[in-house]
Prior knowledge:
417 residues, alpha+beta, Adenine-n6-DNA-methyltransferase TaqI, Chain A, domain 2, four-stranded antiparallel β-sheet, 19% strand
Amino acid sequence: MTKQSPNPKYQRQHWEKSYGSIPKGWEFVMIGSLFTERRENSSNIKEFPLYSFTIQDGVTPKTERYERSFLLKNEENEFSVVHFNDFVLNPMNLRFGAISYSKVPFPVSVSAYYNILIARPNKIDHDFMEAFLRSHPVMNLYDRIAIGSLIEKRRVHLSILEKTFVPIPSYDEQKAIGKILREWDSAIDLTERLIAEKQLRRKGLMQQLLTGKCRLPGFSGKWLDVPLRNLTTECKARNKGRLDREFVFAVTKAFGIVPMKDHVMAEDLDRYKIVSNHCFAYNPMRINIGSICMWRGGSDVLVSPDYVVFRCDEGKLDPDYFDFLRQTHRWDQYMEVAGSGGVRVRIYYEDLASFQFKIPPFGEQQKIVEVLGAATRELDLLQAKADALSEQKKGLVQHLLTGKKRLKFRGRKFDEQ
């Protein structure tokens, strides 16, 4: 750990050496000049509800994961009180971005371990400062000034943070940047709300269409209640020298079927199973947590010989229909039953084949796939839009918070760097 000198000249030289010259018109100021510390404590969680503070969500209502109210003692000054617009920082995790201001419109309690800061009037824009204090250059600065012999327990003491200098633009330019950040956040929030609404709509459609509660126009035939063994076939074909390690894949819950070539020895490949287009593959020990996927890559690939591979019988079960079916509550119920009672659960093909569903005629399956597929594609487009907005905002923030991109404000043009 490099000890931080309180000398602003030294700190400025270090900043410019690490991150470049300070933009024209920006001030190099001590963080302590921007805030005062709030030292208001209380154990009255009825008056000041107990909240959590996380890197991702800031000051946020407690969840079961973070519930610790049962530890409350009958003592005064048990928690720190946070008011609307107060900044909260976690000294232990500050170097990972654990600082933000409270958006909760009423006073709440948080752990007394956290520091609570009040912004000085007309000194900072809250949205600008939150983004700035969570930016990579400033988090690197936290790492320099953190104290502690153990890496995982290093912390940034407020007394040191207050004497640390950073470059910031004028209050007017901060407000202009903060306004842009809020506009981008609003666009991202709107898109994410649309995604949530579409997800609920898609979930409702699946519940209605995959159970037969709602029938599509033109279909009225009876659905058959049959086990999957009547509709699927296990695929046992082995590689036997056909494909090399470039084609070895694994099934993951988060990313589907992904390459695994760096983890496989070539001499093992003859025993590996072949997965053809529109076949399903899964690890018998992980299917109960969602690690099952249909291969849509066209050309054959290989998976571990311990995996189960199967296909949907042509004209009986549409593979895309089954892909939707495995995302239903009924499927989850089977997984819960199959996954109970053992330390290591293994669901092989014979176990899976006993799962029983009400299945419509093949033509109706295809029409249901069309409807659900359209809803899925709409969701995918919205998610791509949200991801693009987040990436664009990230790039813009990087430039605005370092002064590489300047803004026009009230007719005055800030020089571009």
